[in-house]
Amino acid sequence: MTSSPLVPEISLNPLPQSDGSCQYTCPTSRTTILTSVNGPLEVRPKDELPNHATIEVIVKPGIGVAGVRETRLSSLIHSTLKSLILTNHHPRTLIQVVAQIVQAEDHTSLPLLLTPLLNCTILSLLIAGIPMRTVGWSVHLAVLQHPPKTVKTAEGQVFRLGRGGEDEMETEESEQIVVRNPNGEILGQAESSHTVTFSKEGEVLLIESMECSQGSGGQSADGQGWDISDFLRLAEEGKRICCEEGVEIIREALADRKVF
Amino acid sequence: MVSSSRIQCKGAADALGYCHPVRRWWVGDDDDDDDDDGDGDGDGDDEGKEGVAVNASGVDKSHACELVAISPYPTAEATWPSSAFLLGSDLKLKPKSKPDVEPCKQTTHFQMLHFEGSLDWVFLPVLSTSASLVSTKPLFSPMSSLTPQVDSGESLPPPPPPLTFSTSLFRQISPALYLQRHLLHSPPTRPNGRSPSQCRDFTLTTNSLSHAHGSAVVRAGDTAVVCGIRGEVLTIAPGDDPSRFESYHSSPTSATHACGSRGAGGASWGGLIVTNVELSTGCSKKYPLGPPGGLAQTLSDQLHELVNVTKLVSLDSLRIYDREDYSDVTPNAKIKGYWSLYIDVLCISLDGNILDAAWYAIVAALKSSRLPLASWNQTEERVFCDSSLYHPLSLRRSLPFTTTFALISLPHSDDNGGGTTVLLNDPDSYEEDEACEFLTILSTTDFEIVEGELSRSPLAGLRTRVEKIEKRGGCKIGLRQIESCTHQATSKAARYIQSLMKEQLTPI
To answer: Which positions fall inside the Exoribonuclease phosphorolytic domain (chain B) (predicted)?
Structure first.
């Protein structure tokens, strides 16, 4: 089990009128998401699928009106849910997921929002009793190359990637640390950000990883990025976190619900 | 196990309304059938729950089913197993026998819908009884084990001939099967004639728009996009802090700033470059005229993110200084404004994989852009642009390119229990419709350029840096496959660079 500072605050069914709802607060960045799931509902004839349920994901922003970023977030969640929900169990119906960003450090940052949104959505789908093939869990990993001393992290939040056999890079690589679920301050200093989502069985559901170092572009940006083998080791670590700790978090959160 | 409540039987009229015009198999059962279709439909719902094959009248007297299937290959008969398990991984047809069968008189053809991975079986009658389909020809051999073993009688109708379709019709009515059959061949070939790892040929034309500061037209297969870049002068008001434009990805200091930046039409941190994608140009019948839909919005955001992730444009080259003479930049020259770049991508024709085409068009258009020399005029207190002098944008030396893959899962082969998957490089829209899993890799590779040509050194030895990976939908891709995809991305980047050099836009 994880150390306590890394366990998100989960409150189930805060919205009693919906079929299933969940409020999720990321322990480090304090990003708070509230999701509600309703379904199976009647579907608009335009969206009706003959043999599958239609999944609709609406992401509501914390401030302002929804823009392209929210559309993108909902399309990412939609494509993930499509491989999780057994849509053929309720053909010609609608499963509606509404996610409201309650609180966020940066309302425009995709990596900071995606992990809480996905985890919260999956929890509320479980509460709503929507038949799912498996469950998934998402974790956000930030890679810091030269970690400044000022970064405040919780215990167990930081780890290093072990390198197998490649000694010549040892001194350089030892300065690279990985921070789980970083907050906005840490992400601002990070070299790259990786949001990985794995199912309970270890299948890759979603990968959204990008270079995010600061800079003024042009020639100075040459040579940025990472080697694919570094990414694979990071993804393996993410898989371990999702499959072991993530599933444990879901299990504990739903302990008395008997749905998992 | 087929759950009984999942089996449905609909009338012929309903069927045409309900069914997707794809994924069809034709099933004929040698049973009698009263011609009263409308009457029988109601019964069909009840009877259909018992068995698998249900005839139009709904009275389940089918003791055997005959599957007449279509294959893109002339030798398809040989690939059909002679049992009742036919056509792909999880399509199973179980003839149900009933002892009290009336002699068959007419033939009904059923359309059977089956969706992969589901437990659902839907049988829909498509053709009502039709004498023209009845013929005395024997069924071809793989089907013979499925022909009904009815006692000889004069009322037994001759078995229907196999329904055959042209390849183009098969392509329309059963895209998933059509694609699978192609990919199961050895060597695997896609319906468009490419191998799975082969991308489409593309052409590039730059600076064809006279009013834009830079433009590019990219055509890859039947996907064609136009990218135009227009610079606008953004004057820094006195007291405004210009530092927020000096870095990509610099985080806002408070939520109120973030709110303000949203309202300011995209001029946010590192937001001097604004991207927009227009799909409502009649490029595809899926995207009608109107406000931008989900895909167009997602693409706009993705491309903006790509600009930010790659830090393609040097923000230094977008500064407008307070100086009279362009030759030298004094270190204490004051920044009076910025060039804001509006990148508009119009899709002319959409045949899949628009992200790669759009990103390549953006890179080429930025590479060919020429901005007028601008400077701050003290007396007028405005920014003035020179009418004849232009300067290029300074970009990165190693240009990043995206490569998109679509994953198609193949039915279970005989040897191993699990189904295999095929990653298709540069999918077209026909393949995109069938794939549920997509992988986009943004990578840069430092190529050696010798005498204006890419050096012929093996690509495997080159160092490829990945800057962005996006994998969405589905669950079948493995981490090892992602690694092999980066190698394919490298070879695609080499082709991109070559085509850029042809347009006299050398990467250096």
So the answer is: 198-372
Structural domain including A115 reads 9-253
Is A65 a domain residue?
yes
How close, in Å, is residue A33 to chain B by CA atoms?
A: 16
Q: Does B493 touch chain A (CB under 8 A)?
A: no
Dihedral angle computed from the Cα positions of residues B475, B481, B486 and B489, in that order, rounded to the nearest 10 degrees: -80
Chain B nearest CA to A16, separation (Å): 30
B252, closest residue in chain A (CA to CA): A106
For residue B190, give the nearest of B439, B37, B406, B342 by alpha carbon.
B406
Q: How far apart are CA A195 and CA A176, in angstroms?
A: 18
User: Using CB atoms, which residue from B247, B474, B479 is nearest to A83?
Assistant: B474
Greatest Cα pair distance, chain A, in angstroms, is 62
Is the pLDDT confidence value at B1 over 70? no
Estimate to the nearest angstrom the gap between the alpha carbon of B74 and the chain centroid.
29
Instruction: Provide the whole-model pTM.
Output: 0.76
Indicate whether A2 belongs to any domain: no
| Min Cα–Cα distance to chain B from A254, Å | 24
Question: What is the distance between the alpha carbons of residues B424 and B426, in angstroms, rounded to a whole number?
Answer: 6
Q: Does B345 touch chain A (CB under 8 A)?
A: no
CA dist., res. A158 & res. A138, Å (int): 17
Q: Is residue A1 part of a domain?
A: no
Write the residue in B258, B398, B463 that is nearest to A106 by C-beta.
Answer: B258
Is the Cβ pair B312, A221 closer than 8 Å? yes
In a domain, A233, yes or no: yes
Contacts of B263 in chain A (CB under 8 A): 64
Residue B76: which residues within 8 A CB-CB, separation 6 or more?
B69, B181
pLDDT in tens, B455-474: 555 555 567 889 999 999 88
Q: Which among B122, B1, B106, B121 has a CA at the least distance from the CA of B57?
A: B106
Report the CATH number that the domain containing residue A179 is assigned in CATH.
3.30.230.70
Task: Tell me what ipTM this predicted complex has.
Answer: 0.91
B475/A199 Cβ within 8 A: yes
DSSP for residue B412: E
Which positions in chain B touch A110 (Cβ < 8 Å)? 305
Stretch 118-137 of chain B: residues touching chain A, C-beta under 8 Å:
118-120, 122
**Helix ranges, A178-227 (H):** 184-189
Question: Is residue B463 exposed (0-12), middle (13-18) or buried (19+ Cβ within 10 Å)?
Answer: exposed
- Mutate one of A52, A83, A211 to test the B interface: name it (highest B CB count within 10 A): A211
**pLDDT value at position B505?**
64
The total of structural domains in chain A comes to 1
State the angle between helix axes of A68-82 and A110-128 in degrees (0 to 180), rounded to the nearest 10.
40
Percentage of residues in chain B with pLDDT exceeding 70?
A: 58
Q: Distance (Å, rounded) from C-alpha B186 to C-alpha B188?
A: 5
Higher pLDDT, B484 or A149: B484
Spatial strand order in the sheet of A204-211: A158-159, A177-180, A136-144, A192-199, A204-211, B464-472, B437-445, B401-412, B419-425
Contacts of B468 in chain A (CB under 8 A): 209-211
B222-236 residue pLDDT tens: 999 999 999 999 888
CB of B310 within 8 Å of a chain A CB? The answer is: yes
